[in-house]
Amino acid sequence: MSHRRAWMMTPLETPPLPLTGGCQCGAVRYTISGPPVVFYLCHCTECQTQSSSAFGESLRVRLADFDITGPTKVFLRPIAKGGHQTCTFCEICGTRLTHQRDGYGDKLNVKAGTLDDAQWLVPAGHIWASSKQAHMDLAAYDLVYPHQPETDTDLEARWRAMTPAWHPEG
Ligand SMILES: [Zn+2]
Ligand SMILES: [Zn+2]
């Protein structure tokens, strides 16, 4: 029997699938036809730089559920432990749309601010809290990791519990 935590939370009012989104100029559009695997925020300094803001948003989806159209360009960011992260942008307006790490072959992370409707989002947790900007108050969250968690198992389990309409099996 797998370990389960009794999460105290109100389920999210998840929107109907597919989720849709795109870049700032409208040339690149995408759809997400299956339930996202997890949503979390990253406060590492790389994410502060790449977002030119306070944190990075990762809405992880299965590649099989993801469809993107329009002119894109990629930037291959070297990763400290080897390999690359493929960062995809609109070629015209430069909006950053997705990240995919080598080795995450069947999933990618959508930069969730590009969803047409992002208001329903609540993160399952926060990673790299040790380098967060001082004004970010994470006291309300159960899952706050000072650095990279060893696995995303707990983040994914909490996300499933937060989104019962998408994960009726729990
Ligand atoms: Zn664009
Ligand atoms: Zn980060």
Automatic annotation (TrEMBL):
It comes from the Bacteria. Belongs to the Gfa family. It comes from Pyruvatibacter mobilis. This is Aldehyde-activating protein. Keywords: Lyase, Metal-binding, Zinc. One of its GO terms (molecular function) is metal ion binding. Residues 19-142 form the CENP-V/GFA domain.
